[in-house]
Amino acid sequence: MKNTPLLAFNDKGIYCAQADVYLDPWRPVDKAIISHGHADHSRWGHKKYITHHSNIPIIKHRLGEINVSGKDWNETFSINNVKFSFHPAGHIIGSAQIRVEYKGEVWVFTGDYKTEDDGVAKPYEPVKCHTFITECTFGLPAFKWQPQEEVFAEINNWWLQNQAEGRTSVIFGYSLGKAQRLLKYLDTSIGKIYTHGAIENMTEVLRPQLEMPETTRITRDVKKDEIKGNIVVAPPSAHGTPWIKKMVPYVTASASGWMTFRGARRRRAIDRGFVLSDHCDWQGLLSSIKETGAEKVICTHGYTDIFSKYLREIGYDARTEQTQYEEENAEQTSKTEDE
């Protein structure tokens, strides 16, 4: 065991041999420690799930009746003398970094994370470690986020303008995470918030944990005239479906880090793009890595080659590993809807 790394990547996921447990595995395993509720990180079929308490309602909603136990923030639990604990990742509600310690060696797996406090997820906290396993979804210098207050001012002004022109505003965001962030900061003094069923279902699961404004699910009973001039929050997969015809006349927008690039908006046939991401930008990634004090960095998904090359240039022992977490490029929205 001496030369075996504390965490290794195999065809099922990130494996801790000493504890015989996997972190965010993508194939069915006996015991899985789960960072957060998005589909590429919490998959169906494991015999036992361990996650943060606030993530349990989410994964039960998505996966059904599973064998799951919850832990608190910073609560240490041991499996065969390996110590594990969850620390806030700031990505979405219930998202955690997973700290792994054995015989004084510490690794941290981020899952997905962001450093900006969005007022919804528990804010990201840096965790000291020797090896840091990081995502780099937006690991290019071109990605630089505005403060979210500025972005939401733009979104609410866009809604107000559309309303003045007699149009309905339809904004697309992933049903878990992005949608709740949108709902929290939409200005209800402008009008009412309507939701697609997928958004409403997940929001109902999260309402006990979050302060959310009143929303109205769009059903067959909701008349087109009721919706006009208001705002509709929908998943990206709803774009271009018969469902959206009920909003005519409407204007569309997408809230995503990919809206940095005009080409992404054009390919998706979106009228307006708002750059709002639940992941770190370039500087957020670099500052997070520095704060960990880690010497070794493993890049798992996103711009892995470019980002790890830059890390090596500035002195880190950095490499990449293949995973089945979605890289979320601009063409994958309907598949992952996690941005």
UniProtKB/TrEMBL annotation:
This is Metallo-beta-lactamase. It comes from the Bacteria. GO terms for molecular function: RNA endonuclease activity. SUPFAM superfamilies: Metallo-hydrolase/oxidoreductase (SSF56281). NCBIfam families: Xnuc_lig_assoc.
